[in-house]
């Protein structure tokens, strides 16, 4: 009976030149991926993902049951409406608006102490305020926004009263 020959040519033990170049090119990436996996393991993210994947059937059944209610349908529809409206707003304008709201809330949240002077304007002070350009420059955007809000509600028919009437 014949025996199997265990012979390999010398070039079979070496990688081809293009394969070596590919290994060298990917060596840094593989080291980074291994480092990332080590960090994810040590921080517990991998364990959390594993637990989440194991519990996914229960989580998905709870989510589906919650969505199959009138509140779930209304919630999803509301999310879609919010997403559509956010898509119509210029991101820079939205950022400026939120920055302004944040500044106003920060100022309004400052505590008032007993020694803070409060001088009511009085009758003549109110007349002076009516001619204060800085006050009107501050209030004008709020008034314009309130008018636009009211007009949009009238046009949608969601505000009681005559549809399309502008009270000016």
Walk me through what this model shows.
The protein is built from six helices and no strands. It has helices at residues 17-43, 45-67, 70-88, 91-108, 122-130, 133-156. The termini are far apart.
Summarize the structure.
This protein is mainly alpha-helical. It contains 6 helices and no strands.
The sequence of SSEs as H and E is: HHHHHH
Helix and strand content put the structural class at mainly alpha
Tally of contiguous helical segments: 6
Shape: elongated
Distance between the amino and carboxyl termini: 111 Å
Tell me the radius of gyration. Answer: 34 Å
The low-pLDDT segments are 163-168
Mean pLDDT: 84
**Major sheet description:** none
Helix content: over 70%
The fraction of residues assigned to DSSP E strands is under 5%
Strand elements, count: 0
Task: Supply database-style keywords.
disordered C terminus, 6 helices, mainly alpha, 168 residues
Strand-helix topology:
Layout: H1 17-43, H2 45-67, H3 70-88, H4 91-108, H5 122-130, H6 133-156
